[in-house]
Design goal:
Elements lengths: L1 H31 L7 H8 L18 H8 L21 H8 L1 H4 L18 H10 L15 H16 L16 E4 L13 E4 L3
Antiparallel strand pairs: 1-2
Helix pairs in contact: 4-7, 6-7
Length: 206
């Protein structure tokens, strides 16, 4: 009998502690006015921008882009601030490399399509590609890159995407064949107790 009463007392204590903790949370929420966090799709609907505008991950979440960081620092207003004069890939001039930096996360490294449509076999013309890159396609979740590329970078990127879509440029291969490595073993010390595993391996070309 005493054991049953003791067990009941423990149960009542645990329930009381849980109820007290829940009450504290509710009271804190009401008095401090804590608002429910908005989900990423709600932010996109409110700002009129796709998730890829503010996040490295096109589907939302993950690290923020420069615009996303500035937007969050300003208190997440209804309009995402622009970054005039900020290049997305300073110093990069190769079209394939620009595609990898700017487009591959959504369109796939081979243009096969991931979050966004595939580009291979679409026969896109240069004018349309440039329009899409500069203005984006908000309804499809594509952000605008206007002002984030130099004229030469824009031309190189448009040329690469157009060639990729028309079959004039082959998609990047899944793997690259490399020649076998040639190594030579050179002892670091003439001491007799040095094993080969303690030696420095150097390329024959050096």
């Amino acid at each position: 009998m005493k054991q049953n009463i003791s067990g009941l007392n423990r149960f009542v204590r645990r329930v009381s502690i849980f109820a007290l903790a829940l009450g504290v949370c509710l009271i804190t929420t009401v008095f401090l006015g804590v608002q429910t966090a908005h989900a990423l799709p709600e932010y996109a609907a409110r700002t009129g921008e796709p998730c890829a505008t503010c996040h490295v991950s096109p589907g939302g979440g993950g690290p923020r882009t420069l615009r996303g960081l500035l937007w969050a620092a300003r208190g997440k207003p209804d309009k995402v601030p622009t970054l005039p004069g900020i290049l997305i890939a300073p110093g990069v001039s190769d079209g394939a490399e620009l595609f990898d930096i700017i487009c591959a996360a959504c369109h796939g490294s081979k243009g096969e399509g991931l979050f966004a449509i595939g580009l291979v076999g679409k026969s896109l013309d240069a004018h349309n590609v440039q329009t899409f890159v500069e203005n984006g396609i908000p309804l499809n979740g594509m952000p605008s890159f206007k002002g984030q590329l130099t004229d030469d970078q824009l031309t190189a990127l448009v040329t690469f995407v157009t060639g990729l879509s028309n079959g004039q440029i082959a998609p990047s291969p899944d793997e690259y064949v490399l020649p076998p490595a040639l190594f030579g073993c050179a002892a670091q010390s003439a001491a007799p107790d040095k094993s080969c595993s303690q030696r420095t391996y150097m390329s024959r070309g050096n």
